[in-house]
Design brief:
0% strand; rod-shaped; 2 helices; 69 residues
Length: 69
Amino acid sequence: MKNHSKHSQETIDRMKANAEAARKRLARLNKEYLVRRQVEKSAPSKGSSQPETFAEAVMRIAKQERVTI
């Protein structure tokens, strides 16, 4: 038997495209996670006069790190 693969070329191409899309999504989620972690570490203490919301902190850190969310 010379059938090297049980999948058609179209199926193989689709699986490769799906894997690439998953890698890109994972990379984007990892960047977002790292920004959130940094925000949690650098967020001002609760004793500040005007507390920064979590969303504001995320956007501030994203701008500092030049990350698109």
